[in-house]
Amino acid sequence: MTKLISLYTPFFEASDWHAAIMTSAGLMTILTLAIMECLLSVDNAVVLAAQTATLKDPKKEHHALMWGLWGSYLFRFIAIGLGAYLIKFWIVKAVGAGYLLYMSIHFFYEQHHQKRTKNKGEKPKVKVRSFWGTVATIILLDIVFSIDSILTALALDNNPVIVLLGGLIGILAMRFVAQAMIVLLAKIPELLFMAYVLIGFIALKLALSLPMIDIEISNTLFSIFVILAFGATIGLHWWRDKRDANKRAAANNSDK
Q: Which of 3, 37, 61, 202 is the most exposed place for a label (fewest CB within 10 A)?
């Protein structure tokens, strides 16, 4: 118990808080960590957007992100205190990679199944995830994705207050990114398919980073992949809109 308390004592040290928020070096480090959190969590934002979009209700989507935010904050506080032991938790990554792969495969299976049902003339069943199930998934996935960013932050600065504040700001920023992606998903339905392709890629990225494989796909490479996928999806959406507009115009001309 004494050892556990000693892990979290630095969070309440006045000197650590002073170094974090009352010095230019501390503030610059917090800003750096917040930016790093955003860069390391591009994959997290993709998954969050895809998960919350299944609620089919803007208010529930917003509330799910907020509840997930507070749950992630609590975990981040606990995890930074246990930072020295996180390196041993590769099994969390393995489970996370498996779950993300399941999510991706299950989504495309459901889409294929609904298409077959529609072709048979039956009404496809639209599955809507439960609110608390979505919140739990958001928190669990943050646990998976945060291990690398916490270890990176601890390597940059050993002041737990600085690491905590930088991480919390980064998490908040990523929630806004996820919220923006949800809005785009509503306007461009094809982005949902892109999101689940990316989730499959993220599962591969996590699996390859396991200690027994140790192949690292850099975040820069992943970000380039996201940009290319996003551009291709926007292009596909534009082409489909133009094609449908031409069909409507042709139909109107034939009616005259």
A: 3
Q: Residue 34, Cβ neighbours under 10 Å: how many?
A: 21
Could you tell me the pTM of the whole model?
Answer: 0.64
User: What is the separation of C-alpha 79 from the centre of its chain, rounded to a whole number of angstroms?
Assistant: 18
C-alpha–C-alpha distance, residues 254 and 179, integer Å: 43
Give the span between the Cα atoms of 235 and 229, in whole angstroms.
10
Which amino acid belongs to residue 18?
H
Q: How confident is the model at residue 1 (pLDDT cuts 50, 70, 90)?
A: low
Mean pLDDT of the chain: 77
Domain boundaries defined on the chain: 13-248
- Nearest residue to 148 (alpha-carbon basis) of 46, 218, 98: 218
Handedness of CA 153, 166, 202, 239 (dihedral sign): negative
pLDDT digits (tens, 9 = 90+) for 61-85: 888 888 887 887 787 777 777 665 5
Q: Look at the block and give the residue holding tokens 């499959």.
A: 200
Task: Check whether 7 has a pLDDT greater than 50.
Answer: yes
